[in-house]
Amino acid sequence: MLGAILASALVFGASVPADATAAFAAPPAVEPAYTDHKRPLDAEAPAQEEAPETPESPDVVGAPTTLPEVVGGRAIVGTPASAALGVWPDAELEFEIIWQRDGVDIAGAQGDSYTPSADDLGATLSAAVTATAPSGASLTVSTQPVIVEAGTFELAAVSLTGATSVGSALKTVLASQAPADATLSYRWTRSGATIAGATGASYALTAADLGKAVTVTVSATRPGYEVATRTSAPTRAVTAGALAVAKPAISGTAAVGKTLTGRPGTWGPKPVKLQYQWLRNGKAIPKATGATYKLAAADAGKRITFRVTGTLGGYTTATQTSGATAAVPRSLSAAPAPAVAGTVKVGQTLSAKPGTWKPAPVKLSYQWLRNGSAIKGATKSTYKLTSADGGAKISVRVTGKKSGYLTVTKTSATKSVPRVLGTSKPKISGTKLVGSSLTVNRGKWTAGTTLKVQWLRNGAAIKGATKTTYKLSAADAGKRISVRVTGSKSGYTAASQTSAATGSIGYPSRTRPNSVGSCPSWAPVKGNVNSSRGTKIYHVPGSTYYSRTNPEECFSNASAAQRAGYRAPLR
Length: 571
Known about the structure:
Residues 42-65 are annotated as: Disordered. By secondary structure, the chain is mainly β.
């Protein structure tokens, strides 16, 4: 065996003189004592056989009788490897050791020990031992190479902290810190079965863990080392979790006919399922299981609450109930709905018809509205329309109040108020005498207004007198004439304006005959012109020729005829 080791040592780089032989007697095994690099070595040979004497300061260093070796014959990452120098026949030798990886010197790796690193894993490790005599002669012998094995290390004990209920998180705790270069991985198990996706240092318990024990296995990986693994003790059986709950609330008006809305608040974790139940004086209302509830007559005088129940697999069912409403007041009724009565026209007065309110007596108040907005000061049961209402929609709001009952407000349908036309006072021009014509100036009205004219005699309409001009007749004598103009336009209230009346209508002093031989009664004096002589003669009623005269002109009296150049008849 020793011969094989020696032969191997020579193969791995022992330097011997050219004329030296490589035959050695194999000495029995020894426990060599050696020193660090370049310090004298005393190796004690077995008692039964003495080593041959070595001459001082030899020119050639003799081969070792016991070859250098890696102590223990193994090299492990992270564990110091030591080199035994072997037994050399010469005295006063100095030694140098250089460690080699796969036969190549490792930079900086000198000395009798070397700690393999991750870079050495799987490679061969050997130590090249060079012995040097005082004469300068030297011999290098390498140890038998060994394959570097993966190192091992201990991972600290693993434990778990945290509540063992669904929804809580368990956290991995190491009794001491893992090596800085270690990479940790985690595998969580539920009653021995791996939990899919649970690979972190912490784990949130789910409904699937209920009633089960949970453990964590921590694996530490380091370059050049075997994986170190530790498993925690199992937890106690996981219990049901507690839901995060909120106090429900109710919004809305607590009155018969009104709808209340339940607000459950925020519950968790998702997807917690919430169920609702409305209660009347603490008792469940049949079929009232929605988020809203319309108060019925049966709720009058009762207190209403809203109960929320949350359920989720793995969690304890939780229930929360809102605070109670005030006792639900009874509701007043009004039938029919309020209405507006009266002529819907600016200047007219409207009346509110409130309907019948029950149970009587009910105190009513009013508010008139213009286009839905309250009209300041219009709080009586009647309202006189003003110009501001023209073109607007008018309605009335009636509010009923009664002790122990909910105040109720009802609003009538709207009424559209026509706009008011812009008008002008008409004016009359012309001669105010029978037989003359009068003309009306209608003035300025709203653009697009249709105007109609009616002449009046002492305030009464004159039949057929509907044009802008009017010829005065004997019927007008002694009367006062005026004219009325009426305007109309879509969306507007029709309006009328009447002119000032004329003074009393008189007769003119002269006029033309009514017909051949006839003068009007108010101008009975006939004026006649003699065709042969051109003489102008007037005839008064009852005179000799009056009935036979065909007048050219008629006069109110003889004086008027005389002023016109007529003379009295000679007989």
